[in-house]
Amino acid sequence: MKIDIPKISPVLTEKRFTDIFFEEDPLLEMCEITGAEFTNEVVERVRIYDAVIKNCQFNQTDFENIELTDVRFENCDLSNVNLTKSSIHRVEFIHCKLVGCEFPESSIGNVRFDDSTLNLAAFGNAKLEKVIFNESVLTNVDFYNCKFKKIEFNRCDLNEANFEQTTLKGIDISSSSFETLTVSLESLKGCKVSSYQAIQFASLIGLVVKE
């Protein structure tokens, strides 16, 4: 699946993340931010456009209602960051840590999570369209009541992920691994799985598969 990649300017201005505290309208655009430590802060309705953010720490920060467009995060720690009701479009998370990150009620489109860790992340009631999870760890991730459209899970760890009230029709999880999932039989209709996974699902619903 092809997705739209971030449209990032070839020349960016170096800025500090703390600069947004001095603006009435917290906006960062056409910039590169490296090595920032912006933890345990509360900044609502931040807008970040056309930016590269590298080697930064945002642990425990509240970015509710943030708007991210054309942004690439590299080697950043966003553990336990609040991104509730956010708008995230044409964004890449590369080698990032998003443990416990919260995305409820967000709009997420043309986004790629590459070689990232999303254990315990929460996407409840979010809309995801054209999103690729590539070689990422998503154990105990909560996708409760999400709207999926053109989603890929490529060689991911999905163990104990929750897909309750989320239809997986047309979603291919055959290259990913798990021991158990929370998902209803109704939601599984049309999901693409490997033959081994089919046996796993059979055992989860109490069937005994004879060889």
Description:
Helix content is about 5%, strand content about 25%. The chain is mainly beta and about 210 residues long. The chain has one domain (about 15-205): E3 ubiquitin-protein ligase SopA (Pectate Lyase C-like). An eight-stranded parallel β-sheet has the order 1-2-3-4-5-6-7-8, with no helix packed on it. The longest helix has 10 residues, at about 195-205. It is elongated and about 65 Å long.
* Distance from first to last alpha carbon: 35 Å
Percent helix among the residues?
A: under 10%
What name does the CATH topology carry? Pectate Lyase C-like
The CATH architecture name reads 3 Solenoid
Give the percentage of residues in beta strands: 25-35%
* String of helices and strands: EEEEEEEEHH
Mean of residue pLDDT values: 93
Strand order of the largest sheet: 1-2-3-4-5-6-7-8
Whole-number total of structural domains: 1
Q: What's the CATH superfamily, by name?
A: E3 ubiquitin-protein ligase SopA
Query: Would you count the extended β strands for me?
Result: 8
Radius of gyration, CA atoms, in whole angstroms? 18 Å
CATH C-level name: Mainly Beta
Structural class: mainly beta
InterPro entries: 5peptide_repeat, PA_immunity-related
Protein name: Pentapeptide repeats (8 copies)
Organism: Oceanobacillus oncorhynchi
